[in-house]
Design a protein that fits this description.
heterotrimer; A alpha/beta (384); B alpha/beta (375); C alpha+beta (460); A: 384 residues; alpha/beta; Rossmann fold; four-stranded parallel β-sheet; 17 helices; C: 460 residues; alpha+beta; Uridine Diphospho-n-acetylenolpyruvylglucosamine Reductase, domain 2; Uridine Diphospho-n-acetylenolpyruvylglucosamine Reductase, domain 3; Vanillyl-alcohol Oxidase, Chain A, domain 3; 3 domains; eight-stranded antiparallel β-sheet; five-stranded antiparallel β-sheet; 19 strands; globular
């Protein structure tokens, strides 16, 4: 297994579980399950034990490995020099399990759906562009930016709303962009994090070929997960593009004066998506956007920025739900944290976070008291 | 000994608390003629001023007494100077006859076993300066920046000031100028290591070395020649480099309109002809170098060494005098040349309301490479 | 087996009980050198009530019980030597009360050091607790249970001395309040002026009961903090240097260290001390007093204050010091182990010599770290070796070196700190027989069935 030579270096000290100032545990699976085995240190020691044949691949082992939300809190807080590889190690272990063919059914199903339908929803490709109906989005045909939507934004009800909102903002600002609609393929980020390296490569190559064929140079993604794949993994497969998250563009458009706002009086807190924040170092743009809206009162949660608490959707959990629910499910914990700020809305910049937190509000029975709004949706509401 | 191996991107500091494998010190020194100090007793005998010890702040001697003590020192006899000298290096500058009074005092002290510093401090510095094989080499050209082994410089060599010379740089104990040991009455280590350093530079095949540390320049232009150690390159003081570069970037300079005091390091006494560049650079960047009591030949050192060697009061006294002098004359900034001075005095001046800044950073501010402070 | 699992599930809820192989693997070992032994059950209680029910069940079924915090003793104290139920206390992690004027904090049995530190910084910035340099996941209760030491130990004693009250579930299954809390809701004393019962639980590693609540004394937290390092090459002077510093009553933590790498530390002995103050004046005064106290060593060239490189200072000023954990990766092997006996400071030269001899004999990377306790009444001398977990030979050599340390400790009249079971047995064999008789009596009465962390504080 890749990284096998460094696994034994974990000291199981537990720094990986915490925030920077040790206020609270910040590893989503540890918060929920509370067994040490569900912490990064637990995974490291168990992976080593498994590779040394001291334990077997069991349902529990798979649960432990596949529940990891790959939120990178451990990468952020581990005190050792190998911390940058922690999430990679967990993914490498998943790859081993996938190669052996012994994985949880929900993981298998997700991979099968991608394999067969090219998306996670078992929906026909022809339906993929339907979200854009009623918007002024045009097919990509050499515009400055390709606006890449992704599975969630294309097929999920909540995601589609966000895709529409971003589109509306871009159109209002006169941005030159196009979409792929039914030509679009899954970006493969979750396929990779779930350990199906082969399928990922295949998807990536198809996408790269498609983008290159169309002469794409700049890509804006709706979903930070897609941005992550395009930025981190596509280049070594020959896909070198300038990749942006839509929040970067909106912030730029505000700065250049292309967007004007009315007063929009609302108390908002912001949830940093793991794949925008910790994984890709982008914390400022969404905040810039929110703070640019007159009348909007911005409040930070205690655990924000590099210390943001994951919604629990990463690592494939959004589709496989191995992390599961319950009162200590990460999305519910995060909603409770948002509620504590006194905010009326928790802003997100990722369609997966949006859905996870929406579900969290329902589970906490806070409908009417708190709502999830994508940054783009807030912008649309405030647009002059 | 050191092969250019391209830009090492490792920026982890070596000074962390932790364990490493035991490394045995390999003495790879070639057989060399032992360097000898070029001192001429006759120059002292015929000296018209005795300036070295007459001007010395830490001892009170007249011309005849001064000459007499230097002769005693030369002849290996006892002298009141051994007790009084605090290793400020100033007499190397006071002596206009190039006869190296301070180097001589240091030689004799070592011969007599007269320690200046606590043994453990000397030992620590000898260990710190030992080549570790953990040097960094950039893309070495004919002209190279030497960072000594001052980690602070690694971040400083960025921006417009250095864009023409970077990434041609060296960093590491393998390029350490070794001057500091004369504070500790130890010239043996200088004689042992400095030739090796010269070898390292020779192997790199460089023609010019821009010394970012004042000490390095002092070592290569003053100390090495005083010991007959061949320097196989032309040393350039970074003040000269900065001055030239600022002139090239003249149209980008926005005058800073600030009042600054300059902290002159001890090593500057070994390169007194470069000291005047400070005023010229300040003029270029629109900073007024305040006139004060403890400036130029009358400058006070930072006191960092004094603290190690003599304890709290002596160092504190010198530092208070120095900082009061800066304040009295309206300095808003204290400009540093030497990182060691800055580490020693930076916080102290800041507490008294004066902003500490390295001269390179000040120049960066003037050309817009570094933001001005908020207020 | 199934019945017990079911019973435990009834107590804590099914999602907080496990008999899975993975959990039994993990909870049966720890990052030090002690050999593993798997438990049968792992359970995560949320309340004192649940803990009591677990102990009651264990008594009924005669199953061993091992309470644990973060499992960071490194001497195997929570490895369940006879299997049974590992009680992971960390779900009980609330901070229950902070009394600002009386300066104490009341926390649960699984509350972490980090959580308390953070809470105080945010809500009571003029108060601090004695935090050890263990990773912040270490729990307060476990740390006092093993007589840990922290930043305030030089001034005020072992962290266990700073306890001001306990709530425990005894091995017999009774919930007991220890100290002033037995009388009222005030947790300001662990015993005095009445019989001090805290000694029945502190230092027993859970062998007499489980701590479900602990109150710790808090002390003033000043706005400014700085560190100085006095360097000497003479080990024989270290005890008197420490004496002089402690005489000033101006220092916070005093740590003496000696290690061959990095080069800045080679060959010397470093007496580091911390000073605090609310103003520059206060801080500078303390600095001056301590510098003056050591003047004669500077004059005689026997020692001096080193300049601390700017990148080193923030590392030294961290609490807890992350560099302490990084010791584990020195051999790129995720392991370090140390024996940290409590000795009289005058033993420093002997200890350091022994450390160097062992490192040489067994070819090990080492670090000697001493924390001064209680104005110099004692010191913790850590013989620390870093090892590579994947290198069996290195593990064996490290074990042997530490075994020699165990015997050396007795020779110099030291006391084992968080002793391994082997060291516990050595201690039992070497202590006054009547002292051991007393310990046996206490153990027998508080844990009649012998289910509490069995194997510990027992004769073979």
């Amino acid at each position: 297994m890749q990284y096998q030579e460094i696994i034994h270096r974990c000291f199981r000290c537990g720094y990986c579980k915490f925030t920077s100032d040790y206020t609270d545990f910040n590893c989503p699976t540890y918060r929920k399950f509370r067994f040490e085995t569900f912490s990064p240190g637990g995974r490291m020691w168990l992976i080593r034990a498994w590779l040394n044949n001291e334990i077997e691949n069991s349902e529990r082992f798979q649960e432990i490995l596949f529940s990891c939300a790959t939120c990178a809190n451990c990468v952020e807080h581990c005190v050792f020099t190998f911390r940058d590889d922690l999430v990679n190690i967990f993914i490498a272990a998943r790859e081993e399990l996938v190669n052996n063919g012994i994985i949880p059914p929900s993981v298998r199903d997700y991979l099968k759906n991608i394999s067969i339908s090219g998306n996670a929803y078992k929906q026909p490709a022809e339906e993929r562009g339907k979200w854009a109906q009623g918007t002024a989005a045009r097919p990509y045909d050499g515009q400055e930016y390709l606006f890449y939507i992704g599975d969630v934004g294309s097929y999920d009800e909540r995601g589609k709303k966000i895709a529409k909102a971003v589109t509306n903002v871009f159109v209002k600002a006169g941005l030159s962009f196009g979409i792929l609609a039914d030509k679009e393929l899954c970006d493969g980020n979750e396929v990779k994090t779930l350990g199906e390296a082969g399928l990922f490569q295949s998807l990536a190559k198809q996408n790269i070929s498609l983008f290159k064929g169309l002469g794409v140079q700049k890509i804006i993604t709706l979903d930070p997960h897609a941005m992550n794949a395009f930025k981190k993994f596509y280049p070594q497969l020959g896909g070198i593009f300038e990749v942006f998250h839509y929040s970067e563009l909106i912030a730029q458009l505000i700065h250049s004066g292309a967007l004007r706002f009315n007063e929009y009086s609302i108390k908002v807190t912001y949830h940093d998506p793991c794949y925008l924040g910790r994984h890709n170092g982008q914390y400022e743009a969404p905040r810039t956007i929110l703070k640019a809206i007159p009348g909007l009162e911005f409040i930070e949660m205690d655990q924000h920025g590099e210390n943001a608490f994951c919604c629990g959707g990463g690592g494939g959990n959004f589709f496989t739900d191995i992390l599961g629910g319950g009162s200590e499910a990460p999305n519910r914990i995060r909603i409770r944290q948002a509620l504590q700020t006194g905010a009326e809305a928790v802003a997100v910049a990722c369609p997966q976070c949006a859905k996870m937190l929406d579900d969290g509000i329902k589970a906490e029975q806070l409908e009417g008291k708190l709502q999830v709004l994508d940054v783009a949706e807030i912008v649309v509401s405030a647009l002059a | 000994m050191c092969k250019p191996i391209g830009l090492i991107l490792d920026t982890r500091q070596y000074l962390h608390i932790g364990l490493m494998q035991k490394i045995s010190y390999l003495d790879t020194r070639k057989e060399n003629i032992m360097p000898t100090l070029q001192f001429d007793e006759k120059l002292c005998e015929t000296c018209p001023t005795g300036a070295c010890l007459v001007k010395c702040k830490y001892i009170d001697l007249d011309k005849e007494q001064a000459k007499a003590e230097m002769i005693k020192i030369s002849r290996g006899e006892d002298s009141v100077v051994f007790d009084a000298c605090v290793t400020c290096y100033a007499c190397e500058e006071y002596c206009k006859r190039g006869n190296h009074p301070f180097y001589l005092i240091t030689e004799r002290r070592e011969e007599k076993g007269l320690l200046t510093a606590p043994r453990a401090i000397t030992r620590q510095w000898i260990n710190i300066g030992e080549p570790q094989g953990r040097y960094k080499l950039g893309k070495i050209g004919k002209k190279v920046l030497s960072l000594g082994f001052v980690p602070e410089f690694l971040d400083m060599v960025s921006g417009k000031l250095f864009e023409d010379i970077m990434p041609s740089f060296v960093f590491g104990q393998e390029f350490f100028c070794n001057v500091v040991y004369i504070h500790f009455a130890n010239t043996s280590i200088v004689k042992q290591r400095l030739p090796m350093i010269m070898e390292n530079f020779r192997e790199l095949g460089v023609d010019e070395v821009v010394c970012l540390h004042d000490e390095c320049y002092g070592s290569f232009s003053h100390l090495a020649p005083a010991y007959g150690i061949e320097v196989p390159f032309r040393p350039i003081h970074y003040f000269d480099f900065l001055y030239e570069r600022l002139q090239q970037l003249n149209d980008q300079i926005k005058p800073l309109n600030i009042k600054v005091a300059y902290q002159r390091p001890c090593s500057s006494r070994l390169s007194s002809n470069k000291h005047n560049r400070v005023k010229q650079i300040m003029e270029l960047i629109g900073a007024e170098l305040v006139e004060r009591e403890y400036q130029d030949e009358n400058a006070l050192c930072c006191g960092g060494i004094y603290a190690m060697l003599y304890g709290y009061d002596f160092a504190n006294d010198v530092q208070e005098k120095n900082i009061n002098d800066m304040l009295k004359n309206g300095a808003q900034y204290c400009v540093f040349n030497c990182p060691a001075c800055q580490n020693t005095l930076g916080e102290k001046v800041a507490k008294r309301g004066i902003r500490p800044i390295h001269i390179i950073d000040l120049c960066k501010m003037a050309i817009g490479d570094k933001p001005l402070p908020e207020d | 087996m199934k019945n017990i699992t079911h019973s435990l599930a009834e107590i804590v809820g099914p999602e907080y009980v496990s008999t899975a192989a993975e959990d039994r693997y993990f909870y049966g070992r720890e990052p030090g050198l002690m050999p593993p032994h798997a438990p049968d059950y792992i359970v995560l209680p949320k309340s004192t009530d649940e803990v009591q029910q677990i102990v009651a069940l264990a008594n009924r079924e005669n199953i061993p019980v091992v309470p644990m915090g973060a499992g960071l003793s490194l001497t195997g104290l929570v490895i369940p030597l006879k299997g049974g139920i590992v009680v992971d206390m960390k779900r009980m992690n609330r901070i229950l009360e902070v009394n600002e004027i009386a300066r104490y904090a009341l926390v649960e049995g699984g509350t972490s050091q980090g959580a308390l530190k953070s809470y105080l910084e945010k809500h009571h910035p003029r108060l601090r607790h004695s935090i050890p340099d263990a990773p912040p996941t270490a729990t307060i209760a476990a740390n006092v249970s093993i007589h840990g030491q922290g930043r305030l130990t030089q001034q005020y004693g072992f962290n266990s001395d700073l306890v001001s009250g306990l709530e425990v579930v005894t091995g017999a299954g009774d919930i007991c309040r220890i100290g002033s809390c037995a009388f009222s809701g005030n947790w300001f004393s662990k015993g005095a002026p009445l019989p001090d019962l805290s000694g029945l639980f502190l230092g027993w590693f859970g062998a007499t009961g489980i701590v479900t609540k602990v109150a710790v004394k808090l002390y003033p937290r000043k706005k400014l903090r700085d560190v100085e390092i006095f360097v000497t090459d003479r080990t024989d002077l270290v005890p008197e240097i420490v004496y002089e510093i402690t005489h000033t009553e101006m220092a916070e933590d005093i740590l003496v260290f000696s290690q061959p790498k990095p080069m800045i530390f080679k060959d010397n002995h470093h007496v580091s001390f911390y000073i605090t103050g609310d103003t520059d004046e206060e801080l500078e005064f303390k600095r001056k007093m301590i510098w003056h106290a050591l003047d004669r060593y500077i004059k005689s060239k026997d020692g001096g204050f080193m300049g601390i490189p700017p990148i080193m200072k923030p590392v030294l000023l961290e609490s807890p010091q992350r560099s302490a954990s990084r010791l584990a990766d020195v051999k790129k092997g995720g392991g370090f182990e140390y024996s940290g006996p409590i000795v009289m400071i005058e033993k420093y030269p002997e200890c350091v010599q022994k450390l160097q001899d062992l490192a040489s004999k067994y070819d090990l990377a080492y670090s000697g770290m001493v924390r001064v306790i209680d104005c110099g009444h004692a010191a913790m001398f850590a013989f620390a070796f870093a090892f590579n977990r994947a290198d069996k030979n290195m593990i064996e050599r490290t074990r042997k070196a530490l075994e020699e340390v165990s015997h050396f400790v007795l020779d110099i009249g030291g006391l084992y700190w968080k002793p391994t079971v082997d060291e516990q047995r050595l201690a039992i064999r070497n202590m006054d027989p009547n002292t051991w008789k007393l310990m046996e009596m206490i153990k027998a009465n508080l844990d009649p069935q012998g289910i509490m962390n069995p194997g510990n504080w027992e004769v073979d």
